[in-house]
Amino acid sequence: MSPDDVVEEVKKSGLRGRGGAGFPTGMKWSFLAKPEGVPRHLIVNADESEPGTFKDRYLMEHIPHLLIEGIIVASYALGSNTSFIYIRGEYAWIVDILEQAIQEARNNGFLGKNILNSGFDCDIHVQRGAGAYICGEETALLESLEGKRGNPRIKPPFPAVKGAWDRPTVVNNVESISAVVPIINLGGEEYAKIGVGKSTGTKLISACGNINKPGVYEIDMTISVEEFIYSDEYCGGIPNGKRLKACIPGGSSVPILPANLLLKTAKGEQRMMNYESLSDGGFQTGSMMGSGGFIVFDEDQCIVKHTYTLARFYRHESCGQCSPCREGTGWMEKLLWRLENGQGKMSDIDLLWEIQSKIEGNTICPLGDAAAWPVAAAIRHFRDEFEWHVTHAEEAQVRNFGLAHYADPIQPIPA
Predict the structure, then answer these.
(1) What is the helix (H) or strand (E) element at residue 104, kind and residue range?
(2) Which residues lie below 8 Å from residue 358, measured CB to CB, with a gap of 6+?
(3) Please, are residues 394 and 342 in contact by the beta-carbon 8 Å criterion?
(4) Percent of the chain at pLDDT exceeding 90
(5) Angstrom distance (rounded) from CA 191 to CA 373
(6) Distance of alpha carbon 374 from alpha carbon 7, whole angstroms
């Protein structure tokens, strides 16, 4: 196969980026500029830092050769002779696993000069980050890779034209690149037959929270959310017969959904575990597949408390480059602390709503949106819970979260 043939097969497969945005991978590859005499690069984004998301860790830890093979094939398609894996600092032990797998590939002639007499040269280098969430954003990742502070760049120019060291660069997630291997083995059209609609292939979901069987699951995207939560094949239901209250279906940055909108859409249709169904209804009644970080909350969980926890995270991880994000995330954290600890006022809820709306869409990179969306969705769907923290200040301070005051949870599904 020629490099262009590989790109065409990935296009036919319909593979969507598994890092969160869901942009078609083959189309992203076709945007890569190819100026004469200028090196190009493939960079694998392994800076998996979103709370609740740990699927890439599983891939790299348990089947690193799948990722290495995917990098070699993708590098051939893109004309990258030097490719990189940029991995988060906390995954220190996985660096050793990847380095060993890369060396084994070199020893067997799958990396280096003139791979298998193909005339193609390629090598892979692992670069460890310092553990900053912002470096999962592709342009901040490029800055960090170049040895600079991991601040996002203004786009355009896009990395496909001016990326690492001003050279054309493609940045893809670990799961996306690992999917290239089955696509080439099966053929793009056969791969596209797995799944449904524009949600082709399989998807890794890292499931956690109040479920009996937390872990990483590979799913066919034709299953329902209800089956994923309650079947023994996947999450195994909610411990101790508790009722389902809410779920963040795609990593901490995507909107939380109350149980009634999680299992069925606003139109009353069964909610499915795929890109289209999870986003049905937009942010008013839907959410996103995101990075596949599936966080389940049972009836005992306090949405205000969890929203405060997420706000603390995004305030800490903001790089501070944009004023709306730098100032706004700090104010959201302060207001949520007051509400969580029974010191809030009704006007604080409206102020919180106004602040998140000033952050969304007004920052260089998506971290501002990632900080704003959880707050907006929590107020949209659980405003009564925020108000309860104001009207029952003493109970809130001693953590006596009476369930009767909260949004209506879903009864357990009969066995």
Answers:
(1) helix 92-107
(2) 324, 328
(3) yes
(4) 89
(5) 33
(6) 36
